[in-house]
Amino acid sequence: MLNVQSIDLHYGASQALRGVNLEADLGQVTCVMGRNGVGKTSLMRAIVGQQATSGGKVLWDGDDITHLSPNERARRGIAYVPQGREIFPLMSVEENLRTGFAPLPRALRHIPDEIFELFPVLKDMLGRRGGDLSGGQQQQLAIARALVMRPRLLVLDEPTEGIQPSIIKDIERVIRLLASRGDMAVLLVEQYFEFARDLADAFCVMDRGEVVLAGAKADMVEDDVRRHLTV
What we know:
By secondary structure, the protein is an alpha/beta fold.
């Protein structure tokens, strides 16, 4: 489904990504791991179109989307939950969810009941401002907003960052359920090794803008992966 081919990315004279290759398939969770500052978020931003690449290709469903805008990629079914959540704090929970309507045809511009089955707490908070939610509830809202788009690729950048353990378990359950249905690919950036290991079908470890380890979970050597995660 997603095929990233040898992409480079620069911020001015500084090169953030060097020949990165990555695949993410329907029905699978692909986990991207690495220390802070190795290029994980830059890779996600390149995939969703928020940062222009300087080399290589991003293919989605066999089509070259390297030069498409973020909104055009969203219309093709690519949804992004950024690090830090980036909800609208002064808008209500319902209004935040409705922002996910933007790439949808008019007939699909409603909040699916499934959203509240996955995140029951949001149903009781529809009128509450997003900024009044706890960090964990805001993360659930950010994921729910992405799911309103009916994505086929869900990109999650460190969804467990600063979240209490009980909500981490809820997020893990939701990710596992979404992938198990077989109609969505999940691309997950994570530094919490146990969370990534338990969810991953495939993994990719980055260091200094490059992929240094990658493969199926069955081929993962934990000691090798952990070595690239410790400071």
